[in-house]
């Protein structure tokens, strides 16, 4: 075993330690590698008869970025996070306006916006909590694009994308819906179901965005592929080209997950969504045929760690704390009410209705 990792007994675990390997309870992942160990995770481990020790990072080799993520969240309030994301939304609107004529210098606007994302979105924990838990009903097109860029950036890092390639992914995510700005607003902003002809027009927005981006000199082709293919699906049911599987560029697969997660979380999804755990469950269901399974699995295994420890309101109005989420049964987490454990899989017709007070600034 490497000297910057240490196997420690369950009784010696402390809150804030960073897992050096995925932690499993029976066959279910309890905490993903690189995530800080929380009190609910400790409580679950201490009740386990299977897990007796876990591997953690120790000493100066503790991952700096993960420490920064945790500290950044503790230092930021809900209002501060909202200000950051809203500011990005305003900047993005200005960026879209400035690149519309495609001048030689316009690429610098996009580069500056991307650098800002990489600089400001280092607090992974805080940003994802805000997007998942603290939604506003007044979010616009530019806020959605900002959220998708943030989620794509974070998922890309989880998948090992780095350097220039990560920049290209951010470019693509930022511009994934740019083509909508060239469509009739009556179609893009229509609150009722689109007619057959309107939907046909709407489905051209990835092509419009792709053709527009090709005009930028020296921009990597992968940026355009992510834009063009972000509505393609693994089973060939997507648009505009009906591509399947490996025909779809990896940027488009990542953006598709981020796009769907933000759409469901914002309350604009086409179907009724019963609570925050159904958001995760929809991603899981879509991963079977339509979204990339491996990418979805990585996304969900990280996301459940942000749900663990959160207080939630059940459909019968009980307030509980999430202590465990089963990847194979995302709708029914294990909860703690006082000193009593509640397994929702044993509670007929009861589900998690909402988070309690959104993000808690503890």
TrEMBL record:
Gene3D superfamilies: Hypothetical protein af1432. Signal peptide: none annotated. Pfam families: HD_5 (PF13487). Residues 119-315 form the HD-GYP domain. InterPro entries: HD/PDEase_dom, HD_GYP_dom. This is HD family phosphohydrolase. It comes from Clostridium omnivorum.
């Amino acid at each position: 075993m490497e000297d910057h990792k240490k196997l420690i007994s369950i009784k010696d675990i402390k809150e804030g330690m960073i897992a050096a390997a995925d932690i499993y309870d029976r066959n279910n992942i309890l905490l993903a590698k690189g995530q800080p160990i929380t009190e609910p995770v400790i409580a679950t481990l201490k009740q386990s008869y299977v897990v007796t020790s876990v591997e953690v990072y120790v000493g100066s080799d503790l991952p700096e970025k993960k420490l920064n993520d945790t500290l950044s969240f503790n230092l930021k309030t809900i209002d501060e996070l909202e200000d950051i994301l809203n500011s990005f939304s305003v900047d993005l609107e200005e960026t879209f306006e400035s690149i519309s004529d495609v001048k030689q210098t316009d690429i610098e606007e996009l580069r500056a916006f991307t650098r800002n994302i990489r600089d400001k979105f280092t607090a992974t924990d805080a940003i994802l909590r805000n997007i998942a838990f603290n939604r506003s009903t007044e979010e616009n097109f530019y806020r959605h694009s900002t959220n998708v860029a943030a989620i794509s950036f974070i998922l890309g890092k989880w998948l090992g994308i780095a350097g220039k390639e990560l920049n290209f992914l951010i470019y693509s995510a930022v511009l994934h819906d740019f083509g909508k700005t060239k469509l009739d607003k009556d179609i893009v902003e229509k609150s009722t179901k689109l007619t057959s002809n309107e939907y046909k027009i709407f489905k051209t927005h990835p092509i419009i965005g792709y053709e527009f981006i090709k005009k930028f000199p020296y921009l990597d082709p992968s940026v355009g592929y992510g834009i063009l293919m972000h509505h393609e699906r693994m089973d060939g049911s997507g648009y505009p080209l009906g591509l399947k599987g490996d025909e779809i560029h990896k940027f488009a697969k990542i953006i598709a997950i981020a796009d769907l997660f933000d759409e469901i979380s914002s309350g604009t999804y086409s179907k009724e969504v019963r609570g925050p755990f159904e958001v995760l469950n929809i991603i899981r269901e879509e991963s079977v045929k339509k979204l990339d399974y491996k990418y979805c699995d990585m996304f969900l295994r990280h996301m459940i760690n942000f749900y663990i420890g959160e207080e939630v309101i059940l459909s019968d109005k009980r307030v509980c704390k999430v202590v465990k989420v089963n990847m194979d049964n995302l709708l029914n987490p294990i909860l703690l009410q006082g000193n009593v454990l509640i397994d929702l899989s044993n509670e007929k017709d009861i589900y998690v209705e909402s988070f309690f007070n959104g993000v808690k600034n503890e």
